[in-house]
Amino acid sequence: MRYVSTRGGVQPQRFTDIVLEGLAPDGGLYVPERTPQADLAAWRKLSYAELAFEVLKLFADDIPDLKELVEKTYTREAFGSDDITPLKTLEPGLHLLGLSNGPTLAFKDLAMQLLGNLFEYVLGKRGERLNILGATSGDTGSAAEHALRGKQNIRVFMLSPAGRMTPFQAAQMYALQDANIHNLAVQGVFDDCQDIVKAVSADAAFKERHRIGTVNSINWARVAAQVVYYFKGYFAATASDGEQVSFAVPSGNFGNIYAGHVARSMGLPIRRLILATNENDVLDEFFRSGRYRVRAAGEVKATSSPSMDISKASNFERYVFDLVGRDAAQVRELWRRLAADGVFDLSRSPWFRNVAETGFVSGSSTHADRLATIRRFWEKYGVMVDPHTADGIKVGLEQREAGVPLVCLETAQPAKFAETIREALGREPARPSGYENLERLPQRFEPVPADAGAVKRYIAGHAA
Ligand SMILES: *Cc1c(COP(=O)(O)O)cnc(C)c1O
């Protein structure tokens, strides 16, 4: 399989050439040159790791040891059950797909755990080293650290806003004692952390000298890993390969639901991909109106489903590439307009009709909706869901069709968002075993000022 850029400015690359990369050099995103096709009949009975291997080898056909890497990743030890992503049936035709049973209790573990093993493998083969630099407001950073802890030839420098995460989120990162993990607690807010990462990355000489890389959600290996659970969820929710299923997906950077789009393109009979946003409704606006308007940083609202608080959706360009018939010149033009005006509008273009063909529908959810959904699921089914999952369920139920099974993706455990659970239910969320004392474990982090120079000096002194 070869990979091209959505902006058309890059020669086709192999998987191992792009796996450690973020953006393509022309500013676009890497996508496979063609979409491989699924073999549903052969895949239905496979275990998670077997299925992951079948899916991933279509995308990563230049990794001879892929099978071992996949088997090492998707284990009962890491994900709590042999199912890896267990399906809970709430009533006939309504299911919850548990994606949040990994080490940091959010769905990002499913992709990140694989990425950690892939990075270590590729670096080892090449005799190279990598320093991962990132900024986090909570979930992504901890998933990355738990995936990369103890890995050979890799160090992690994760910037987080000091004192601004939930105690649980902070402890998930700061309690790690691995020597290759460096938590930099920035005296500032999340935007300061992001600005520092941008400033450091803009220094090409520094980046080159210290081999700085990232693990953000545009990494193709993360998308590919997420394709797997759409198949797994489909097989668990159906009895035969002819049936159609809809998926409800709480969305932020469009990584999770884009993986569903890829699965559908590979031949999985998905009827609807139901996209849910919170109050930050950039994507809902696009799917309703054809207008994609990115928000200014000051326009982003801090909500009770914080991992969906985005100003723009970093994977969205890949989907638009498909909408415009994989025409890179069109993508370049649309993103030129976006850079100039902060908006492009497809409502009067023939491409917008393709949206219906891709199965996407959307809706949004508010804080009050989340509370009501959490209550409703607790009272009706005895199931506690987190606020992000609640966003997905709320919109999923609005768009549910009679006779079509609905699979709602559970993207985090309620234990991570105790405050909202208390507000909704007046009780503490259950804690999975092993996490009871998390906040009381000894913590290890480095306080730093909100200053790129200070962060650079720290990295230079501790880089791999
Ligand atoms: C990251 C995240 C999301 C959003 O997923 P995207 O791939 O960014 O669309 C939803 N819920 C939770 C809990 C997350 O951590």
Task: Considering the chains and any ligands shown, give keywords for the structure.
464 residues; alpha/beta; Rossmann fold; 2 domains; six-stranded mixed sheet; five-stranded parallel sheet; 20 helices; 16 strands; 43% helix; binds pyridoxal-5'-phosphate
Topology (elements, then pairings):
Blueprint: E1 2-5, E2 13-14, H1 15-18, E3 30-32, H2 40-43, H3 48-59, H4 66-73, H5 76-79, E4 87-91, E5 94-98, H6 108-126, E6 130-135, H7 139-148, E7 154-161, H8 167-174, E8 181-187, H9 190-202, H10 204-209, E9 212-213, H11 220-237, E10 245-250, H12 255-265, E11 270-277, H13 282-289, E12 291-293, H14 316-323, H15 328-341, E13 343-345, H16 352-357, E14 360-364, H17 367-381, H18 387-398, E15 406-410, H19 418-425, E16 446-449, H20 452-462
Parallel strand pairs: 5-15, 6-7, 6-9, 7-8, 8-16, 10-11, 10-15, 11-14
Antiparallel strand pairs: 1-2, 1-3, 4-5, 12-13
Helix pairs in contact: 3-4, 3-11, 4-6, 6-7, 6-11, 9-20, 11-12, 17-18, 17-19
The structure holds pyridoxal-5'-phosphate.
Pyridoxal-5'-phosphate binds next to helix 12.
Please tell me about this protein's structure:
This protein is of the alpha/beta class. The protein has two domains: 2-80 and 106-219 and 441-462, Rossmann fold; 87-103 and 226-425, Rossmann fold, CATH 3.40.50.1100. It is built from 20 helices and 16 strands. A six-stranded mixed β-sheet has the order 4-5-15-10-11-14, sandwiched between helices. It has a five-stranded parallel β-sheet with strand order 9-6-7-8-16, sandwiched between helices. A hairpin with a 2-residue loop joins strand 4 and strand 5. The protein is globular and about 60 Å long. It starts with a strand and ends with a helix. It binds pyridoxal-5'-phosphate. Residues 106, 108, 139, 217, 250-256, 307-308, 388, 411-412 line the site of pyridoxal-5'-phosphate (PLP).
